[in-house]
Amino acid sequence: MTTAGIITAGVPERAAVLSFLGSAVDADPAAAARGGTAAAGAPADVVDAIAGLGLPPGALVLIAMPNGRLTLAAFFGTLLAGAVPVLVPPGAGAARITEISRAFGGAALIAPRIDPARYGATTVHPLGDRCEAVLLGDAGEPRYRYQPGEVVMMTSGTSGITSGCLHGIDAMLRNAGRHATSIGQRAGDTVLVSLPLYYSYGLVAQALAAFVRGSRLVVSGPPFTPASFAGTVRAHDVTVSSLTPSGAARLAAEPPADPAGLRVLTVGGDALDRAHVRTLLTAGPQRELYLTYGLTEAGPRVTTLAAHREPEHRWTSVGTPLPGVRTHLREPIGDGPGAELVVESDTVMRRRLPGSAPAVPGTVATGDRFDIDDDGYHFFRGRTADSVIVGGEKVWLPSVRRLAGEVPGVRHARTTVYRDDRDELRYSLDVTVDDPGPRTAAEIERALNRVLLRAERPHRITLCQAPTEEWRK
C-alpha cells in the first residue's frame, strides 16, 4: 500500500482508516477494556461521533488518551472531520492542557473522562462508551489558523512544554513509508507499538508506518519492562517493534530467556552504547536490529543503520539518511565535539508552534551535534545544553525555570544537570527566594506539579534566601 492509495483530498480515506483500526488490537487487558475490543465497532463509533461534533474546518482538537486503539480512532476521526489533531500526554492535568490549548488555539478536548468545569465548559459529548469530548471556551482570537489535513505534534520537551510542530498528514505518511522501507517492514508484519503515541516516534514510525504498509498493529504502552515486552511479542506473534535507547539498554541488560520470534527491532533517539548493541545482536529477541535518528521537526525520521549488517566500528552510528532526506553540517554549537546537523526534506515541519516557518522551506537546523564520516554514516555527539533526557523523557529546562520563576517571591531559578550514583542523568533546581521556608517550597512544587509530568520534575529542589540588596529592587 502506498500513500497514493490511502489519501484523498489531503486526508486519509475513511475505508482505509476503518480497515486499519478494525484489524488493530490492544495488548493490555485494561486497554482492551477501554478500547471495547468486544465491540468491534467501537473505533468506528468514535470516528462517527467526532464527525457529529460539528467542528469547523481546521479546528484544533487536543487528544489526551492513553495508548490504545481508541487513541488512534480519535486521531484519525479528527482528521476525517476536517479538524486538526494534537496528541498530548494522557497524564497531563487540566492546567497543562489549558496552557497548551491557550498557546495553540484549541477548540475541543477528547479524553476518557472529562470534568467540563475545569475547562470552562458545561456539556460533555460522549464519543462511544469509552471516551468523551468537550468544546473549549472561546479564549480570544486563535494565535494560529489551521487547515484540514494538518497535524500538530508535540516536541517531547525539545523546545518547551507548550511547543509543537505543524505538519501535513501527507508528509507524515510519506516519512512513515520511508522509515518502513528502510527497515524492511512488510504488509504481512504485525507491529507492536509500546512507545507513547503522543511522541512522533511512536505515532509516525510505528502506527502510521503500519497504516501505510497495511501491517497489523498491536497497541501496548508504558511502563516498559523486558519481560512484559517479550511476553507481548510472543502472545501476539509480533514481528516488528521499536524501543527508545533507554528501553533498548534495559532489554540488553535483561535479555529474555525464551527469545520471542521478533524479526525487526528498531531503536530511535540518540546513539546506543556499543556494548548494548553487541548484547542485542547476540542475545536479543530480534533477528534484525536497526538504529535510527530523527526529530519531530523533520517529520520525524532522518537516518537508519542496519546494525546486524554492519561492522562493529559502525555500531555507534545512526546510519545514513533515508531516501529523499539530505543532511549537512554547519558551524559547531558552543563547546563540544561535532557540528550542528541540518536536515533537508519534503517532510520537514510547516512551522513551529509557537514560532514561525523554517527560514529555508524544507530545512531544519536540528540543534544536535554530529560527525559524518566519508561514507556518509552519521555519529551523534550531543545536544544543546538546555535539553536533557531524564529517564527516557526529554526535558526542556528553560520551561522548568520559567514555571519556578512565576511563583511569587522567587527571584532566580537555575537548573543543574548531573549524574546520580547509578550514573543516570538527573537535574536539580536551585531557587533564590525572598522566604526559603516550607510554604514557598510547597508553592514551587505545586506550580511544577500542575504542569510537569512526573518524569519531567527535578530530582532535587534547593531554596536559598535572596540577598538583602536584591529585596530592595
UniProtKB/TrEMBL annotation:
Report the superkingdom from the record.
Bacteria
What Pfam family does this protein match (any one)? Answer: AMP-binding
AMP-dependent synthetase/ligase domain spans which residues?
51-350
- UniProt KW keywords: Ligase
Instruction: Note the InterPro entries from the entry.
Output: AMP-dep_synth/lig_dom, ANL_N_sf, ATP-dep_AMP-bd_enzyme
Residues making up the signal peptide according to the UniProt record: none
| GO MF, any single term | ligase activity
Q: What is this protein called?
A: Acyl-CoA synthetase (AMP-forming)/AMP-acid ligase II
The lineage is:
Bacteria, Bacillati, Actinomycetota, Actinomycetes, Micromonosporales
